[in-house]
Amino acid sequence: MLTIIMECRDNEAELAQTLSALVSGAVEGVVRDVIVLDHGSRDGSSKVADAAGCRFLTSWDMKDVVRSARGDWLLLLEPGARPLSGWVDAVVDHVSVNRNPAQFLGSRSHRRPFLQRLARRRAPLEQGYLVSKRQASAAVRTGMALADIATGAGVRRLAVELVPAWAVKAMRAGID
């Protein structure tokens, strides 16, 4: 039913956090596969992806990636992003009655400071992007990045929060 796709470069720790948050979807049979598109990582990203049973691609054509997805729906995420409790039910509810793409709600506990919210546009994948494989196939072009797919009108909101990748990086920077 669902294929998760992420792009990474030296995101070993972030990738591990995202993959651990997706386990509940795999256990419930909702996540069919996970594809990690690598941009030249020199850390252990490939080992993390391999241990989790992901397809780890170092060269790809986005059209082929979308075409090879096993799920009828694609969930595009940034490494480090973590959907919170209840995400599986929210996704299943959405895909059963909607055809429009969707994004998660922003985490109330992880908000950028006020001035940053005013000065900076939100990254296209900051709240994830759920899109049908059919819609993604129609929109994808050779040379596109995942963020390029996550544009367009008619995006609905899922009734569950997502901790954005930037928040995970900020928490790690505070610990290090």
TrEMBL record:
This is Glycosyl transferase family 2.
